[in-house]
Amino acid sequence: LEQPSRPYSVRLDQWSNGIELCPLRLTRERIVRIPSDGGAAPVTRIIGSSHGWLVTVDEECGLSLLEAVTGRAFPLPPITSSGSKKVARDLDQMGESMFQKAELVPGRRVGTFAVMLIHGGGNGLSFLRPGAKSWTALRFPKWMQHKYVDVVYHKGAFYTASREAAVTAWAPDASSSGLHATRVTEPRPEKCTWAALVESLGGGDLLMVSSVGAMDDEDHARHGYLRGSRRYEVSRYEEREEGRWLPVEDLGEVAILVGIGGRSLCVSTRGGRDALRNHLYFARPFVSFEYYDGHPREYRLPTATPGCGFVYVPGCSSSWFLPYVAPESHCN
To answer: For the whole model, what pTM was predicted?
Structure first.
């Protein structure tokens, strides 16, 4: 990779069964291709990316960690290793489509990772401890009555979000499951139909991108979107304010790359990218679920810089990927 600190969109090449890394750009540029392992089952889904690795699903419903720079793949334990009858039933009925999103973080031992996985159409969660040989199927907290749509690792805990923007923190502990669940925020009182979590630039804050209804006539006149298009908001979690989500009207010199079926990223717009500030750019997955449909390629927040902020995003890209990450956080 010529620019290891540059963000890429990740897409499957349906012809070669390989994976392509497409640099964030204003025009078409060179694409980095990761060839498939000739002896492995073809990859059909990319459900996560973090710390230079991708989480992939193959046509035999196997999960693997793929080192994007070298193309090396390391199989993860079968999802049925948890022993959960519900997980086995979902896999039998849904096949590879049962896998939704995964978030990983390095363990303290080199070469080990902790992985949180959303599956079963958002109705299942599983956790893989660093170095473990089997998954643990997690029980939903009693207060959680909604489907999960996103997961991110932030300041020592996994955070999951529901479609109604209810957020739960899962911190590592010594229990049988390996995680302790704590309610962070309840569903938002206003109508929220979709949510994604993302760390701020530098990782200091936890942000949420949420869909909160349709455009009105004023939005249509200001931005030129079609009437009925989704309207989006960005908010920041503030624990000191009774655990509330506070609206973010100005991201500063930042744009958000929203992963649909994969990870989201905050990126700097400095250095000739000022036209991209306060924009949301959405990945375009090949496979869609009911809460993936209807997202635009680009959405301009009210404080977006006037003018063209177009970014070329290839089709069938589900996630965003940053090859170089420093410093690293760890999960016990």
So the answer is: 0.86
